[in-house]
Design goal:
The structure holds two protein chains of two kinds.
Chain A (H helix, E strand, L loop, with lengths): L13 E6 L2 E6 L4 H7 L23 E4 L6 E2 L10 E3 L3 H16 L15 H10 L16 E2 L4 E3 L9 H9 L5 E4 L6 E4 L12 H5 L5 E3 L12 E6 L8 E7 L2 E7 L12 H4 L14 E2 L2 E2 L2 H18 L4 E6 L4 H15 L3 E5 L19 H8 L6 H10 L4 E5 L13 E6 L4 H5 L2 E4 L8 E4 L5 E4 L12 H11 L9 H11 L15 E2 L8
Parallel strand pairs in A: 1-5, 16-17, 16-18, 18-19, 19-20
Antiparallel strand pairs in A: 1-2, 3-4, 3-5, 6-7, 7-10, 8-9, 11-12, 11-23, 12-13, 14-15, 14-20, 21-22
Helix pairs in contact in A: 2-3, 7-12, 8-9, 8-12, 8-13
Chain B lengths: L15 H7 L11 E5 L11 E7 L2 E8 L7 H6 L7 H5 L6 H16 L7 H29 L3 H22 L8 E2 L2 E2 L7 H24 L2 H7 L7 H6 L4 H6 L6 H4 L20 H25 L17 H6 L1 H12 L7 E8 L4 E8 L5 E7 L1 H7 L1 H4 L5 H11 L3 H5 L1
Antiparallel strand pairs in B: 1-2, 2-3, 4-5, 6-7, 7-8
Helix pairs in contact in B: 4-5, 5-6, 5-12, 5-17, 6-7, 7-12
Classes of the chains: A alpha+beta, B mainly alpha.
């Protein structure tokens, strides 16, 4: 930085500068790289990441500044008044090409077997900024190909381009210095710090930020080519934080979850636990409706469920209860609350959910349910707890139950004479149920969760519902029909609008635009 | 034709041919029009096409040409394929001259990429050579099939044999007899084989003889001339009005050949003539094609003479695949190969209409790119689509038997017309 101290002018001041011959104004405090990005000028980079500090180690973002003898890393240099920047002079392009040539010198010829191929920054930058034949035909420096770094991560040291993004993720996001660089020159390699493993709760973010295929997730490794994935925006169901994610699916199966930028919730990150929260979507799902344990058609099962519930209601409404789950979407919660109030006259509505777990002050919340806030809001003050349910069951106050979601936490329900269960999985309550109906999960439906901050966030269906399962609100509509009512909800959006009308806290929520899954191949390399 | 209802007509019994010949025209048996289906699968239909005729006896009153039986969603498929993956689809446009379709498509994309000035000269010469060979095979097919349908079966064998010699040559350079996919954006996929030129010279010599034989068997043949002369006349104005190009347009006196009027590749360096007809009838269309083959042979000889040495594919890793040796042994070329195959060539956003002289006339590609590895739109202007449309105008008034030579001389190619 030419030894000159960067004097920061008063904030909000606009700095006049020239980039590639065009005059621009920027606020103070921006780096040159960010300034270029704002005006749509492409500058390549490996080590810079918008969510991390900038060490300027890759030298890929070099630009010329008038008056400076050497090219300057733009990711590290702040904009200054009357600065003149050239990003596309032959000299700049040449030094960038030379840096790429160095980076490629010892890079293994792994594209056909590399997990990152197709979304690799090195591939992208070579193609965009170099695209010349190799000049070196010598042998490459060999390093370890399979290094087991931790619970979730495998490292290929040959592929590593030494950008240190992963080290900074550990230091700055997870706040644990697990990774370091060792040795120098072309022997330099990434490794764990002495006596450490890469086992922090945010370790999989290192795979996302890795510009090449050096760090790979054990869960995703070799399972799918990146360009065959279709990305759908969604929200992590792992805890009440509600990290914004992209579901990456192919052939109707979720292959991985990756974080999606939301500055107000999770920035660029998510925790390792959340990444694996897609597993239950494809595990031991309840595929078809059952009546008394035997498979039945939807019509028969719905008719039987309605008959049982109506009988319980007509006999004595006070013995009929409904169990909601804090993992249900707002739309499902609302539809069943309406069913309970208008059609079944249930006043004993309980809220269950996953048990409390560990938490930290980074992202992980102790409440492992994605929609506790929404459930409390829609359920209202009369909502009873799981403990109340246990008590009422033991006391025999409740003899008929409509359970939605997973009710494992409630305890054995075998003794109940009437038990209608809407379940995601083949849980024990399903085998005890008089009628069990398969329920579509969060990744299979359009809907919304309300996170711990009260933000209503949209889910988009990324895969088809498993087996014959259907979204909860739809089952509620059909149950209401079977009980003699006529509801007019035709899709989740209409239910959402109804929730917004009813629940004041959600009144500002927006359903948003329809999102079409994007194939990663044609979203181009993302890096 | 007499349209009186039977009841109003005085009936006369005709006995013997003598009486019939002396019958005044007005007293002919009254007839009424009848619908007649020709095709979609018919021995005298070159492609799969259906004509719904309204005939009055043997005379055609009106015709409704129905196309689309060979529709393969070319344009939609192209939107879902990378720029390079489209070449095999272009092979299947005009499948008797696939090289011309290859070249026409490649030129359009190259213009959009702004690399049309950098295509190696040898590649341009090779494109001319394989293209003109394709033009000859196109015309050979057209004339052979039409002659056969007019009962000149010998000619069919002579010309088809000649076509096969050419296709053997193209198979030698491209690996496929018919669906060559030989051209690439930036050049051609491989150089000509070592002894290609001597072999081609030999084939040209034999083909000249075959064409001369066919010429002798047909041009002076009374039966052939009776079926061709003065039949299905297209005027020059009609040719312009209906957008007729290629041999069909030129036979009607429209002196338009893209190779001459808007030269592309290296066509402006060759000495060749464009034959133009005077009457616009079936015979003119036959004669124009016969002469065009001879002119194509002239071009071929000049091109072989002046064929320069050098690369046959643009040396640019963003457009053309690097050599396999580099791909397997260096990371740079591996990445380039990967990006070109998986993402496709990145064509800058824009639109282009590029046109060449195909076997049947002006073969145009209108392409829109949105800057990704696939076209946003890839529309073809198939010459025989326009040429075929004119049948609705020229067939009425002719006899059913005239459909066969007329349709043959229009030379509808289903793959190209229906796309």
């Amino acid at each position: 930085m030419a030894g000159e101290p960067q004097a920061l002018p008063a904030s909000r001041a606009k700095l006049k500068m020239v980039i590639d011959g065009k005059a621009h104004e920027f606020p103070a405090g921006l780096t040159i790289l960010e300034a270029c990005q704002r005006v749509g000028i492409a500058v390549p980079f490996f080590c810079w990441h918008p969510g991390l500090s900038a060490p300027a180690v890759c030298r890929q973002c070099l630009v010329e500044i008038k008056g400076f003898p050497k090219p300057i890393p733009s990711c590290y240099t702040l904009v200054a008044d009357r600065m003149e920047i050239i990003t596309n002079s032959p000299k700049v392009l040449d030094v960038r090409r030379q840096m790429l040539e160095f980076t490629l010198l010892n890079h293994p010829i792994d594209c056909p077997i590399c997990d990152k191929a197709g979304e690799c920054l090195l591939q992208k930058h070579y193609f965009d900024w170099d695209a010349r034949l190799a000049r070196n035909d010598g042998s490459k420096v060999r390093k370890a190909k399979v290094v087991d770094l931790g619970r979730h991560i495998v490292l290929d040291q040959e592929r590593c381009i030494l950008c240190t993004r992963c080290i900074r993720v550990c230091n700055e996001v997870a706040r644990q210095a697990d990774l370091v660089m060792a040795f120098r020159g072309d022997r330099q390699l990434l490794t764990t710090a002495p006596g450490k493993r890469l086992d922090n709760p945010y370790s999989l973010n290192t795979v996302d930020v890795c510009p090449v295929g050096a760090l790979t997730a054990k869960d995703f490794r070799f399972s799918m080519r990146a360009w065959e994935l279709w990305a759908t925006p969604s929200v992590c169901p792992g805890c009440a934080t509600g990290c914004n994610i992209e579901i990456h699916a192919a052939r109707n199966r979720i292959r991985r979850l990756v974080p999606r930028l939301n500055p107000a919730v999770n920035k660029y990150w998510m925790c390792d636990e959340g990444r694996l929260s897609y597993k239950p979507v494809h595990q031991s799902r309840l595929a078809a409706p059952t009546v008394a344990g035997a498979p039945a058609s939807w019509d028969a099962a719905l008719a039987e469920a309605a008959r049982l519930l109506a009988a319980a209601r007509d006999k004595s409404p006070s013995t009929l209860g409904m169990v909601l789950s804090a993992q249900m979407t707002n739309e499902d919660l609302f539809a069943f609350s309406r069913l309970a109030g208008e059609n079944l006259r249930i006043d004993r509505v309980y809220l269950t959910g996953a048990e409390q777990g560990w938490c930290d002050d980074i992202l992980v919340s102790a409440d492992k349910n994605p929609n506790t806030t929404g459930a409390r809001l829609i359920g209202g003050p009369t909502l009873r707890s799981a403990a109340d349910l246990k008590q009422d069951l033991e006391a025999g106050v409740v003899t008929a139950l409509l359970v939605i979601g997973e009710a494992n936490s409630v305890g054995p329900l075998d003794s109940l004479p009437i038990l209608v269960v809407l379940a995601w999985h083949r849980d024990p309550p399903v085998s005890a149920a008089s009628v069990a109906l398969p329920l579509a999960m969060w990744a299979e439906v359009d809907g919304s969760f309300t996170n711990r901050q009260g933000k209503v966030q949209r889910l988009h269906a990324a895969v088809a519902p498993a087996g014959q399962s259907r979204p909860g609100w739809e089952i509620a509509v059909r149950l209401a029909e079977a009980l003699g009512a006529t509801w007019t909800y035709a899709n989740a959006r209409q239910v959402f609008s109804a929730v917004c009308e009813k629940a004041t806290l959600m009144s500002g929520a927006d359903w948003g635009k329809p999102e079409i899954p994007v194939q990663l191949r044609f979203a181009n390399s993302r890096g | 034709m007499d349209e009186r209802a039977p009841s109003q007509t005085a009936r006369r019994v005709v006995i013997g041919l003598g009486d019939a010949a002396n019958l005044p025209e007005a007293d002919e048996l009254p007839t009424e029009s009848m619908p007649l289906n020709m095709g979609p699968s018919h021995p005298a239909m070159h492609g799969t096409v259906r004509m719904v005729l309204e005939v009055d006896g043997e005379k055609i009153r009106s015709v409704d040409v129905q196309i689309g039986f060979l529709h393969r969603c070319f344009e939609k498929e192209a939107e879902n394929a990378t720029w390079t993956q489209i070449f095999p689809y272009t092979d299947r446009l005009n499948y008797v001259s696939p090289m011309l379709c290859n070249v026409g498509y490649a030129l359009a994309v190259e213009k959009l990429l702004d690399i049309d000035g950098r295509i190696p000269e040898r590649a341009q010469f090779i494109r001319v050579i394989v293209g003109e060979i394709s033009r000859i095979t196109d015309h050979l097919t057209c004339l052979a099939a039409s002659a056969m349908e007019l009962a000149a079966f010998t000619v069919f064998f002579y010309l088809m044999k000649a076509r096969e010699w050419f296709w053997e040559l193209l198979e030698e350079v491209s690996g496929a007899r018919l669906t060559h996919s030989y051209v690439r954006i930036g050049g051609v996929v491989a150089d000509l084989t070592d002894d290609f030129c001597p072999k081609l010279r030999d084939v040209l010599r034999r083909c000249r003889a075959a064409i001369a034989d066919a010429d002798k068997l047909l041009t002076g043949n009374r039966i052939f001339r009776d079926r061709m002369d003065g039949i299905a006349i297209i005027t020059r104005d009609d040719a312009i009005g209906w957008g007729l190009t290629g041999p069909v347009g030129r036979s009607a006196g429209l002196d338009y050949d893209v190779r001459k009027d808007h030269p592309y590749l290296v066509y402006d360096r060759f000495d060749f003539d464009v034959p133009v007809g005077s009457k616009g009838d079936n015979f003119d269309r036959y004669a124009v094609r016969l002469e065009e083959m001879r002119q194509s042979m002239r071009i071929l000889e000049q091109a072989m003479e002046r064929l320069p040495a050098g690369p046959v594919l643009l040396d640019d890793a963003r457009v053309a695949l690097p050599p396999k040796r580099e791909v397997y042994n260096t990371i740079e070329s591996m990445i380039a190969h990967f990006k070109l195959i998986m993402d496709g060539i990145v064509v800058p956003p824009g639109e282009i209409y590029s046109f060449t002289e195909g076997g049947n006339g002006e073969l145009g590609f209108y392409i829109v790119s949105d800057g990704t590895g696939q076209p946003w739109k890839c529309r073809v202007r198939p010459p025989c689509f326009a040429n075929l449309a004119v049948l609705n105008k020229i067939l009425p008034g002719l006899f059913i038997a005239d459909i066969v030579p007329t349709f043959g001389m229009i030379n509808m190619i289903g793959g190209e017309c229906d796309r």
